[in-house]
Amino acid sequence: MKLTIKKITKRLAQSLGLAAFLFLSSCETDIIDVDDRQQWLGAWTCQETAGDFAPQSYTITIYEGTQLDEVELSGLYNQGSSFTLYANVYNNDLIIPNQTVDGFTVAGSFEINSDGDGATVDFIINDGTGADNVIGNLSK
What we know:
The chain has 140 residues and is of the alpha+beta class. The chain has one helix at residues 5-25; strands at residues 42-50, 56-64, 70-75, 80-90, 93-101, 104-112, 118-126, 131-139.
């Protein structure tokens, strides 16, 4: 069997094409499945330093929500464990989107510290009589 330069070039191109196809078709996007909620879960002591009822201290509990970035937060504003809000976690921030629960409209954010054992708290809550801008800290 006589191989000419043209046949060798053609077979080489076919082989390279097949190799490129196999390489490209086997590449998949890696899904990074990081659950940023873990640092927030559990019982925290909330110490309000500003707001209509400050200073006051109470316990809040944070549970996993149904979505990968969602948590449930109970007990905020010293309203007891049945007072449950939904929040979203983005890296070191917990964001409470505007929502109304048990007649209270609330929105705000928490930012966890680098050690993961404390956070700053800043939220606005309104029971219908006026807005209360609450600032404070969480600790485990």
